[in-house]
Amino acid sequence: MVKPSESSSTQEQPLPTLWLLGKTGAGKSSLIQALTGSSAVEVGNGFSPCTKTSFAYNFPQDKPLLRFLDTRGLGEAHYDPSEDIKLCQRQSHVLLVVAKVEEQEQSAVLEVLSTIRKAKKIKQVLLVYTAINTVPESEKNRLVAHHQGAFEKVWGSALAAIEVDFDCDTQTYYHREQLVAAITEIMPLVGLMLDKKEHTSLEEQAFAKVKNEVLWYATGASFTDLFPVVGLVSVPAMQAKMLHSLAKRYEVKWNTRGFAELIGVLGTSFSTQYGVKLGARQLVKLIPFYGQTVGAATAAAVSFGTTYGLGRAAGYYFYRKSRGETVNSEDMQQVYKDAFELGKKVAPRE
Q1: In this structure, which topology does domain 17-186 adopt according to CATH?
Q2: pLDDT per residue over 154-191, tens digit each?
Q3: Which regions in the chain score pLDDT beneath 50?
């Protein structure tokens, strides 16, 4: 593993992307606020233009892990969606069709959805019905059935749907957990990133504040390890930069001695396996065809898991050190193993 460093280069990497398709006023910005916890001002100022009518919002803004694409203008006069569709189909992983439940007129959305289906670029679609609590129960059921039938008819098959109601002023997010769970089924990394469950210990609470940064480094390491030999240098470099950054966040002095102590607590088996497995992953990627597909994908997933596991274990270590507490080697090794397995499970597959 590379020793402590403050600098490493990162390549441009693709972000898991949610394409929000819906009419103006459907609640797309509120959905972003509910999922990310960002304010209306942060969301409004965070959008950057992709085309004349499509905008991207990266979250978090400083070290992005997720991108929202918003196509605006549906249902408006003289709006031509062709340019937006071409862009969004190329970048998106999941299409979220957002419809305000009481808005029965959805012809513009249905037309674009039909075009998307014919292009056969987007495979994953989730329907999100908003403002669900603004209508009586009996009326709500009728409206949802109406929308569901129309959308499924255009798509040609059954579509999963979530009913939500987000009041961003009071931060009352009805069915937010169900929406996150539905997205997680398709994109596991998003679920880990957006998880806001209660934490049982102060140490877990402390790590929750740096978790997205660890995920950012894990995603970067995973992406660079897709390429033969590159990962041999890039993965340890990104991990070293992550450790330096985490030490700073936990206000722990970080130097070569601290690095050696952290690795020592993880155990000699960790260091040995780390070096052997890293080299083996690079060799596998050199095998024609297999290495460029299965080998590269496996290497990327393992690098994600290793980096996330190392970051999680480092968080545990730095938290204890910052409080002057003794770090139990067995406990820390278990923290690493659990996080490594979770990281492999949620690692991006594209």
Answers
A1: Rossmann fold (3.40.50)
A2: 999 999 999 999 988 888 899 999 999 999 998 888 88
A3: 2, 5-11, 229-230, 272, 275-276, 278-296
**60 preceded by cis ω (within 30°)?**
yes
Interatomic CA distance for residues 287 and 293, integer angstroms: 10
Distance CA 240, CA 220 (A): 13
Cα 116 to Cα 64, 174, 195, 303: the distances in Å are 26, 29, 30, 34
CA atoms within 13 A on the CB side of 230: 17
Checking phi first, is residue 135 left (phi over 0); if not, alpha (psi -120 to 50) or beta?
beta
240, 5 Cβ separation under 8 angstroms: yes
pTM score, two decimals?
Answer: 0.77
Pairing label, strands 160-163, 125-130: parallel
Distance CA 25, CA 109 (A): 13
pLDDT at 198 (0 to 100)? 65
